[in-house]
Structures are given as C-alpha cells and as structure tokens.
Amino acid sequence: MAFKETQLKEITALMDAYIADHRPPEEIRKQLDIGWRYDKQSIYLFEIRPQWNNKSIIKNYDFAKATWVESKKQWNIYWMRGNLKWYSYDPLPWVVNLQRFLLEIESDPYGCFRG
Question: Fewest Cβ atoms nearer than 10 Å: which of 18, 23, 29, 94?
Fold first, then answer.
C-alpha cells in the first residue's frame, strides 16, 4: 500500500528539508551528494557518486531505509551491509516518527549508515 497524499506531503517536506540541510558543499557535489526517494511504504536515503571505474556514470548507493508499518504506527529502521542486503538496525529497530529516524542517521553511533 502506498502512502496517502497527506502523508506524502509531510514526508516530502521533511525529507527535502533534511537533504537541503545535510548536502555536502556545492563544490564537491559532483563527486558526492545525497538524496532520498520513496517506494510504496519505504523511505530511502542514498549517496550520489560517480561509478569508481567510469566517472561518467553516476550511481545512487542506498545506505538507510525506514519502512512504515501501519498496523503498529511505527517506522522500522534498516541499514545496508556490504553484501547489499538490508538489516534491521538493532540499536534502534523502530521509531514513531521520521524525525527520530533522521536524528539516528546523523548521530550514527555504531557506524552503520555512513561507516
């Protein structure tokens, strides 16, 4: 089930503000930037970088995911391991709002999201 229109407006405003506040300086954005997207009930944060062996190819590399669970009214938090599979973020497996998810991404006390 996809997000409702009102949810999507709130999510978009929050995520756009987060990205605007946390993007790298303008002069390095061609080498490293961040973005977000949604798909069904999940929000993804990703890095935008040139491919390591072909700088003309720009790739998105997911590093964090929050999935809305309507029945529990919570966001489940996931991080991507080196094997490119999503794992539950055990220190804080769920939160009740996206703001708390974003705070955990920024503090990243276990180095799961950005190493």
Answer: 29
